[in-house]
Amino acid sequence: MEPFNGKNLEGWNLRQPRDRGKWTVGAAQVDPQIPRDDRLIAEERTGELINRDVPSVDIYTVVKFGDCSIDLEFMIPKDSNSGVYVMGEYEIQILDSFGKKDVTWSDLGAIYEAAVPKANAAKARASGRVWPSSF
Question: CA–CA separation, 59 vs 102, rounded Å?
Answer without folding.
Answer: 30
